[in-house]
Write a structure and sequence with these properties.
- The protein has 3 helices and 12 strands, in the order αααββββββββββββ.
- It is mainly beta.
- The protein has a single domain, classed as Immunoglobulin-like, CATH 2.60.40.
- The strands form 4 sheets. It has a 5-stranded mixed beta sheet with strand order 2-12-11-5-6, with no helix packed on it.
- β9 and β10 form a beta hairpin.
- The chain starts with a helix and ends with a strand.
Length: 180
């Protein structure tokens, strides 16, 4: 690179639009905007009802039946189906949650989250996958867990927005715990 600059093969000229500018030009203004903040524009221009339609939520397990005492692997996929960035406002700092028969993360102990909004941002066409495991236990106190009885359980996932199921921002699947 040094030889190119010393040989004057690369000509610099502030007045010629097709030649690079001199280095250190203090009065030089940028010729074009470097990038557009898509997430910020999405928050300003895309209404929330349309942003909610853009996001698809799916919940999957590798099988529908699991023996008692084994972990149930869960895959939650959140996907932006629109060709533009989408931002969704959530009610709490927790952006999304998964449940087992309505118990958040398999816990029957209520958790206190502050009421402060967050923004969950998806790039255009972005897919976010999260892997979780339910050990087949329900948390009943801060230090005590009890095993799930054999039977059917509904595993769900949703974005942390008001009425997520009605807005299409939730999904469920059913698994069966079988006795050994």
């Amino acid at each position: 690179m040094r030889r190119i600059y010393e040989s004057q093969a690369l000509r610099r000229d502030d007045d010629d639009a097709f030649a690079p500018r001199e280095r250190g030009s203090e009065d030089a203004k940028p010729a074009a905007m470097r990038s557009v903040p898509g997430a910020a524009l999405s928050r300003l221009l895309v209404p929330s009802w349309l942003a909610h339609r853009a996001i698809r939520v799916t919940v999957e397990t590798p099988e529908t039946a699991f023996p008692e005492g084994t972990d149930v692997p869960i895959r939650v996929t959140l996907r932006n189906t629109f060709p533009i960035p989408i931002s969704v406002r959530t009610a709490t700092p927790r952006l999304w949650t998964w449940t087992v028969d309505g118990a958040p993360e398999g816990s029957r102990v209520p958790d206190d989250l502050p009421d402060e909004e967050r923004v969950f941002t998806f790039d255009r066409g972005e897919r976010k996958q999260f892997l979780r495991r339910w050990p087949g236990l329900f948390k009943v106190t801060d230090t005590e867990w009890e095993p799930a009885d054999p039977g059917e359980y509904t595993i769900g996932a949703a974005l942390d927005v008001e009425d997520a199921a009605e807005k299409g921002l939730a999904a469920e699947t059913t698994v069966r715990i079988e006795p050994e």
